[in-house]
Amino acid sequence: MANITKKVSWSSRGDDSGLTGEGTPLLNGTEIPKPSRQLSGSGSVFRIGRFSTVDLEDDITSEEDPIRGRPKEIPHNEKLLSLKYESLDYDNIENQLFLEEERRMSHMGFRCLEISRWVICGLIGILTGLIACFIDIMVEKLAGCKYQVIKENIEKFTEVGGLSISLILWAVLNCAFVLVGGIMVAFFEPIAAGSGIPQIKCYLNGVKIPRVVRLKTLLVKVLGVICSVAGGLAVGKEGPMIHSGAVVAAGVSQGRSTSLKRDFKMFEYFRRDTEKRDFVSAGAAAGVSAAFGAPVGGVLFSLEEGASFWNQMLTWRIFFASMISTFTLNFFLSIYHGKPGDLSNPGLINFGRFESDSVAYYYYELPLFMCMGALGGLLGALFNALNYWLTIFRIRYVHRPCLQVMEALLVAAVTATVSFTMIYFSNDCQPLGPEHNEEYPLQLFCADGEYNSMATAFFNTPERSVRSLFHNQPGSYNPLTLGLFTLTYFFLACWTYGLAVSAGVFIPSLLIGAAWGRLCGILLASFTPTNPIWADPGKYALIGAAAQLGGIVRMTLSLTVIMVEATGNVTYGLPIMLVLMIAKIVGDYFEEGLYDIHIKLQSVPFLHWEAPATSHWLTAREVMSSPVTCFNRIEKVGTIVDVLSNTSTNHNGFPVVVQVLDSDEPAKLCGLILRSQLIVLLKHKVFVELARSRLSQRKLQLKDFRDAYPRFPPIQSIHVSQDERECMMDLTEFMNPTPYTVPQDTSLPRVFKLFRALGLRHLVVVDDENRVIGLVTRKDLARYHLGKHGLEELQLAQT
Amino acid sequence: MANITKKVSWSSRGDDSGLTGEGTPLLNGTEIPKPSRQLSGSGSVFRIGRFSTVDLEDDITSEEDPIRGRPKEIPHNEKLLSLKYESLDYDNIENQLFLEEERRMSHMGFRCLEISRWVICGLIGILTGLIACFIDIMVEKLAGCKYQVIKENIEKFTEVGGLSISLILWAVLNCAFVLVGGIMVAFFEPIAAGSGIPQIKCYLNGVKIPRVVRLKTLLVKVLGVICSVAGGLAVGKEGPMIHSGAVVAAGVSQGRSTSLKRDFKMFEYFRRDTEKRDFVSAGAAAGVSAAFGAPVGGVLFSLEEGASFWNQMLTWRIFFASMISTFTLNFFLSIYHGKPGDLSNPGLINFGRFESDSVAYYYYELPLFMCMGALGGLLGALFNALNYWLTIFRIRYVHRPCLQVMEALLVAAVTATVSFTMIYFSNDCQPLGPEHNEEYPLQLFCADGEYNSMATAFFNTPERSVRSLFHNQPGSYNPLTLGLFTLTYFFLACWTYGLAVSAGVFIPSLLIGAAWGRLCGILLASFTPTNPIWADPGKYALIGAAAQLGGIVRMTLSLTVIMVEATGNVTYGLPIMLVLMIAKIVGDYFEEGLYDIHIKLQSVPFLHWEAPATSHWLTAREVMSSPVTCFNRIEKVGTIVDVLSNTSTNHNGFPVVVQVLDSDEPAKLCGLILRSQLIVLLKHKVFVELARSRLSQRKLQLKDFRDAYPRFPPIQSIHVSQDERECMMDLTEFMNPTPYTVPQDTSLPRVFKLFRALGLRHLVVVDDENRVIGLVTRKDLARYHLGKHGLEELQLAQT
């Protein structure tokens, strides 16, 4: 199973260290991993909920050993915390080089930087909009061709008999598309699977997910999502837009492409994690904006997911990128649809226009909406639970790329078959109206001038089906059609999410919700046939869609705003908010949100907004990792190389200490230096002795660090000769001389607050003599979470 | 002038210390104030821009002394930073008492707290909505009566002649209303003057503005704004709603009223600055929401103004309060208007419905909109500059309450006279249509069946005038009317803002902008009479309104969303954003935003989002105040009383140090204690000796601190006998044992980031032995700002 976990993890082939081959089993599951990183001395591998009253230092190992010995109790993956993921360095490294550069820079220089930030955000918006446009047009073309061919085929065989040939044609076409998409994802870039929202959430949270913002990922994502949607899977193209926007932002803001080995010598100032993460948040917002035509929702999404860094100017820039993105999409799609200047396509999904007159709600409908919210929460929790088990199953048994592709093909074939069967056995015929001209109405066994109503739901891109459910005339669907559709689509969507294809879950959720919401509306209308307020089931479809989506993804403020912007009508603000709130409360009672489940299953050290409420009795002393590997201010090169090469620890930040000459006094903290900085120093051989001998040697500049960013070479690639090992390195100029510190008695919530608010990667714990006694990193904080039985502690694992 | 500054400052009569009588001149202006608070040793009273290259420690006093001697160079108030304003304690005081309480609390306890937070937010929303409803109905009733009486009078005298009697009637009625409002504000609660937005901005920024969230302030504010609007001044009732919401929140969340001396024994946990500030942000959001029907805009407003504390759950609660607020208003107003269930009054200002068909914009109109944005920025800057000079004038000469009331009366009379004159001399007659039934059309000298178009703009509440400008038929106004109206209203509004009445500037700004925007639309249409896209001047009125408002208040994201929500149409998102952005850029080039000007004129130590860009060369050592008054862990009562009684320093936070027994080593930092805590300790006589003698004595609990919050008694009111002065106090249990610290070499931006992100009040600067060498407070950071000539340093003053 260890191997399996490795296989399906987001970074499977992105493991830069390359220490383990494809098939090498890693420590996980049956064997308890050796706590090989800087671990706390206080029983860090156990659940501590039960021990809250006993002294953690004593008597634990004996009690816990039996559990360790039981090989049957394989810890679930979500009870592990992977050590593979590193944090982003959101805290500026304010070393001498940096300060000198900042001090040299004039007021004008800062203003120019600010202007370039705006330019970059504009570019992010434009490119994201263009990508969305490309995806939309490609999907429409391909799906259009596909449905046209099948429709003609079905029409041909409806009379003659032998519709099984049509079914086979449909299934084969679907499989062909999915095959292409699946191969790309499974073999070339597994991180491009799924919607990408969990990955972007993690990135904005401050976790460095390997390969997530690379150009290759973007290409596979874009082509993959076209294939999945054209392949008729129960997926949407909206989630992947968020990921795409983030990749665009990460690329544009760096002014170069490491993959293409092109450096445009632009925006060099922004080549560090702080700036990059800010731009990525703009890109994610632009993606949301293009996907739903919801610029404000995009901004709120970015803020909800990663605001260590709320800042007025930044937010305003994010908003700018979002606006430009939706405008670009709108502009080009309007031209594509032959109505330039009309600007009626602000997003990929278009909910259509909800006129406030026809679908106004009354306040006595609010309790009804709230019940629907609760139902959405329940169904969402069911969806998530099913998907959770499915994902566990996939982690165990479907981990090879070829198996993943085959599963995708199976799903594609089953989707086509089920859809066809449903359409075939449905006898819900409706008169053909003018509103169906842009769809693919199937006549099938209906009379002339009529069409099969089930087919509008299944034989269509999901976006169009949603729109039909929102806006088609009352009576376009009969209740049985809707019920069957909900049921089948629910399971199809649940099966589909987590496949090795690029695909989002927003649209399927909306579709399921819209179907049962409309069903609710129809049933209500049938109880009180005379009351005109139940007249329009489209209103209930909207509420149902919101409830189902909220129940699955559990987003709050941003989702409300996204829905409101997508409907283009602010009057629905209150009901949508209420529905989402109820759905979240009900859903959270049973199961977490879908994205959170997937983040947990990947064992990502995700930091929530606040420390667990009941964690005040923990202090930095218990939480921190110790002992800490420190360097002296002037350190021997050999020592540094040895520490960096030690694969069993793999530390990334090292406190720098200064030894008082009178050597019995312990060393005091004087700075913090990162692995990446040391690697650059070693690469450029910045040794004290060399500096003396070659006086004319160029001084190391920030540029050298920026050039190496973000793919710092591994220590193994740097050759240090035996002579050089005896040299000394002076770290004074390069270390951050003022790292944030906390005393050892600081409570966990206080440590957490500091860490989270400033987006730190390392927080040094010192005693009252300013001596280093520990180091708090992301894992030390993410380890604690509030389980059903109080505070729990996750295990740390290498995978 | 010193006296004057005192008079008009927000907290004039809120000075709790009561050290100076009403007429006592304070040190300010002609005399340079003694730097009597903990001041930096590094020349803190000078502009340091010029000295950036010299050593700040030396040679400054001699050079600067001549400037000090010059009595003519009165420093402007905005170059001062008042020492009168304290920070809120947003950082939790995690002392032993607190930690014990938190540790005792179960998971269920925290959940109950969370639920009460939601309940409080719901209450805030409901009460804010009800207040908005009350204001709206009262204004409508009173203004309705007034206009009806005057209209009948005018109609009577139009035929007969002698319209001067009507003018006098109008002026007298206006003056009567304004007199009541002015007296309340000027004599009873000066802090209720104006819109209250600057004050709430400061509060959310973390500045404790005295009396700003008291019940009396709320009463005066609500009644005052009814009087001002009914009195026909060029004011709006929207700004004050934000202040009202904030007061409601501060009151409800505490579960008691100190003013009414009622304690409901509820919500005691929330009696501290941290929680209160969070609730106040919800209240401000609820206020915005009720004012504009913009719940999302409200949330964004709160976040833009004070997000040290962005937190998902908090934001969601804020959103809940906003939604409830607008729903309550909507619900009751709908009932009041006789259309229950219609829910068409989400806010106090109703922009009316912008149907997307009739007023769609085309992308080639965007450059045009941007030009209007630039115009708005220019006009806004002009408005702000005029108001700035006017405010300076008022600070100097109009400082007595009776003078302030008289100025308000003068403005009321002039407003009535000017309006009457404009209407009288206007001959813009328009046919009376069905859309005028809810207004007060004046026929005056027009033919029967026609009405005077100028009168719809002047003879109306400003909200209705705005709506008319947005929606009346093309041709309802002729260009001359609009031009004259813009001109007069611009100056009237500018004169009115800053009077001693409760009044907002949003609606006047919108009205001015709508007028010239409509004018632009009409002119454009007249250039190309055949092109139908210019057909509706209402669209241009909207853009003009946004431009003018943006040019005056310079809000960004939140204002965009507020405008979009108020129009109820998301398609205007992009143009409104562009317009606001251009208006801000153009306006900022000339002059700051109106609220910022008023904040600066009050010398509030307001912290912006980031430290000035060019401040990297400053370190904590230069910025901090030193020497610091410290206490020992076990300190003599006499010493504490003496320090607290020292009015010349008036420190609020004291590092607690521990002396090593071997006394030649300096003391090390071990905690931080606040003045308010010491006062409670002294009041309860928590002395070591007493504890020994009376063993049964009740231990001091957090409840004692909470009961004293927020109006801690002054030290003078606590009697400490001579014997007690010899006692000792043990601070260990009460001090915060883990205050945040920074090393002395930390750069200013880094200090700033820590301080701002965590909402600190005191930040201790330590050396590498953990000895206290300085203290950074809000003033030390707010002192530095980026002026036109680089980094400037503000002077500190007692007033």
Could you name the key traits of this structure?
799 residues; mainly alpha; 3-stranded mixed sheet; 29 helices; disordered N terminus
What does this structure look like?
2 copies of one chain form a homodimer. Chain A has 799 residues and is mainly α. Helix content of chain A is 53%, strand content 8%. The first copy, chain A, is built from 29 helices and 18 strands. In chain A, the strands form 8 sheets. A 3-stranded mixed sheet of chain A has the order 8-10-11. In chain A, strands 13-14-15 form a 3-stranded mixed sheet. The first copy, chain A, has a two-stranded parallel sheet with strand order 1-18. In chain A, a hairpin with a 4-residue loop joins strand 4 (256-257) and strand 5. In chain A, helix 4 packs parallel to helix 7 (215-230) and helix 13 (401-425) runs antiparallel to helix 16. The longest helix of chain A has 54 residues, at 107-160. The N and C termini of chain A lie close together (11 Å). Mean pLDDT of chain A is 83; it is low at 1-8 and 11-76. Chains A and B meet through helix 3, helix 10, helix 11, helix 19 and helix 20 of A and helix 3, helix 10, helix 11, helix 19 and helix 20 of B.
